[in-house]
Amino acid sequence: MSKTETLTMAAPEKPKGKARVTTLRTELVRIAGIALVIGAAIALFRSDPFVLNMMAYTFLFGALASSWNIIGGFGGQFSLGHGVFFAIGGYTTANLYFHWQISPWLSLVPAMILAMTVAVLVSWPTFRLKGPFFAIATLALNEVAFVLANYFDVLTGGARGMMLPFKAGLENMVFTSRLPYALIMFGFLIVCLIVCAFVLRSRLGYYLQAVHIDEDAARAVGIDVLKVKLTGMAVSAALTGIGGSLFAMYLRFVDPATLLSIQDIGVKFLLISLIGGVGTLYGPLAGALLIIPLEFYLRGSLSGVVPGANLLVLGALLVIFSLFMRRGVVGAAQTLWAKFRRDDHE
Amino acid sequence: MTTFLNILIVGLMLGGIYGLVSMGLNLIFGVIRIVNFAQGELVMLGMYGAYLSWFLLGLDPYVSSIIVVPGLFVIGVVIQRFVLQPLQNEPFMQIFATFGLLMLFQNLVLAITGGTGYSVRSEVSSTVINLGDINISVARLVVFITVIVVALGLNWFVMNTMPGKAIRAVTQDRRSARLMGINVERAFMLTFGAGAALAGLAGVLLAPIYTLSPQIGGNFILAAFAVVVLGGLGSVWGAFFGGFIIGLVEAFSGYYFDPALKHAIWFLIFIAVLVVRPGGLFGIAGAEEMGLREQD
User: Fold this and answer.
1) Nearest to B35 among A136, A308, A315 (CB)
2) Model ipTM?
3) pTM of the predicted model as reported, rounded to 2 decimal places
4) Which fold has domain A3-345?
5) How does strand B134-137 pair with strand B128-131?
6) What is the rounded distance in angstroms from the CA atom of residue A180 to the CA atom of residue A186?
């Protein structure tokens, strides 16, 4: 791929015609708009448990894909190992709640810090690798984590997993209805979007994009490449860890096969991002809004008849999008919009 | 001493399996510079091909290679032509595309078979040779011999034949190779086809050893990555020796530490080598970055 092409891929707003880089204020206003629309949608479906469940998953995975997008999309480091940070968050909260009855709200903090620390420690050496090799190494990390999670059953409950006790109450983050969960995931999504917007419009975000487009050039202009990557990874992993905690409390069950599944967790983040638009601010959310309901539908209607149908469709989508829609739904929309405006001016 | 020898034999036989599975991956990587995440699924397809020819035609799995191997070659050529060729020089999209193929193949087979585990029987598969206290399974011995033959044959092909020389030229510099009149796209299709065919061969030979499941490719792909990275990216002998290293590590750590941890141990070795010497033990230094260099 030519470097100019990478540039258009990485740049969140394609500078075509008079289009310019948006300010943080614009993005925050947009996020507020998204929050209003989603809030209205939750209010509309507040008594439908099926839709609320789907929404909770959609928001959670939209948020997680957005977190992945910080290092994977802005920074161009295609990690397949984010499941590890996800699982760390899940296990931290589950353990603290299970053994010491510590409120999950409080344990979000240690979950976040632990995920961040592990992310920095394992990424330090692996960031020496580039492109596909980084992806392979992170894939292997996920596998090591899987083996270890099965082995150290004192911490993780081993392959049988841990069932968290059902004690309804706000302080336990356990509810009888699905509505509070949808609201929590919604809140997490908005937090992630705001963090992403801040990162994208900060020095760190520009550095990450510079590293993505050309690492050597970035180093040549004086960017400390390793530090930038590690910071991006830390932010990304911290959010992913929180997501893992929320997921554990939502399922009230943690086991290695769920938390460290490559196809259902690790790859899901980048799949959603690709379909929505890698490196764009709203791409991961758009991807989640498309993929998660689609998966629910496929699982509900087809999986009984054809096992694995949902993953079959996702695999096909992955190939098709990588061939024909590299910038995802948001990228395609931006191109169309730019074209439309140019036609308008002429 | 007998225990030690037995573990050594187990390790070597396992190494043969890993080496054979990695040959195709390494060939594809070495020449086209594509990391094929779907390679394990090609092995899986080879295994199911062996099952099909046994089920439909009553062929012994070893005989069925005359159908399965060319079949996989065709699949490989099709993948290269229609999926990977348009993505040349786009390493990120290649990750997505080959991962998509992985999910596609795995779940396609799952959808067709409904997840039933099959096993293929061959006359040879249950035979065991006893040498004193040492037991060698014939099915594994066949794999062991095949990997040696394949490594020698591949090496000879690449070094001494015109198509082999063309492939090496393309590996070194696509543009100059093109100027010399080599059809780069055709060389790539041939290579990917050959890589897929090797995966098919591995699948056929492994079919009598393992119980077939759609997810079995996942067991091989990470081992194959470990082997290829350890041995050296793009070097024929790298995959050969890398396979034995991983096989021996797995056998010995499984015996002396804990069988549950054997995978964790070789993964950690793998990550360590990847980080310290990304080119691999037998690889050319800097080979790991060549995939990212711009070429046309």
Assistant:
1) A136
2) 0.81
3) 0.85
4) ABC transporter involved in vitamin B12 uptake, BtuC (1.10.3470)
5) antiparallel
6) 10
